[in-house]
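Sample A.
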Amino acid sequence: MNAMVFLITTVFQLYLSIVILRLWLQFVRADFYNPFSQFIVKATHPIVGPMRRVIPSIGRFDTATFLLALIVVTLKMTLLSLIASQPIDFLAISLFSLVSVIKHAGFLLFWMLLVSAILSWFNQGYNPFIMVLGQLTDPLLAPIRRIIPPMGGLDFSVLIMIIGLQFLNMLCSQYVPYWNFI
């Protein structure tokens, strides 16, 4: 049973990451001709494409992709409840899904910041993956860079953002239901 829980959780979390990245790529208007962006689009388009015909976007926010993220978490929680032979409470699962998508987006942001900071030490010219990471994280780091510009070649904006994410995570764990169970 633990192996099935692990497999279901891993597969759904990986696909949720891809769906959130698609939502994020569209929101920041990243380069969709980038190979990494193309992978994200191709992995989600069979489901998002038909949904977008029915569910309109709100400005730059793609509601169909966000709904898909909620559906992915809802399916994961429903399958895990069935495996554990627990009753399915769709109200709790709905609230849990919303909280899970938000927390997973923060988790992705943390890892993208960390990877982009580490890769910046070794970057030798153009790299499509690093370019997309920059397009995804720079809009969030720009306000911090305006307040605290890079000093002596060191950019502290990533460190400040990671500290802020950790603070938000700790704050939400105190006040948001289900935050610690994700």
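Sample B.
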Amino acid sequence: MTIEFDVHSQEETEQIATKLAGLLSPPDVLTLEGDLGAGKTTFTKALAKGLGITRTVNSPTFTILKQYEGEDFLFNHLDVYRLADSDEDLGWDELFYGDAISVVEWAHLIEDDLPNERLEIQLTHTGDTSRKILFAPKGRRYEMICEAMTV
């Protein structure tokens, strides 16, 4: 099962992320893949805002992990691009199975460390301001989230 959204503006991308935020709870894990400039950080910022995160969210490219406190849980934002060809374990179990919602950019680089159940999200350029957003759920919980996104 996959679901696809064709968006034509940043605002539409933000609307999808905000709707998704309302369906998430710890320890949900989302992976984001897409070329540079495809909208991964834009999507993550809107998701965080939808989760009630009030701090400014930006890409953790050089720090790998940024953690934000919400009202009831933590929000982990990881950019693992710099971990290519690394065997470093950053305590994945604590991050992915703890009391947080996690978003992992460039997740394919740590494929073996990811939970089997997760929501994989692919963002693809289709024009100057348009994107295709593909959700591929791994596990029943994420299938139910995807079903709720189509209502």
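B remarks: The chain is about 25% helix and 30% strand. The chain has a mean pLDDT of 89.
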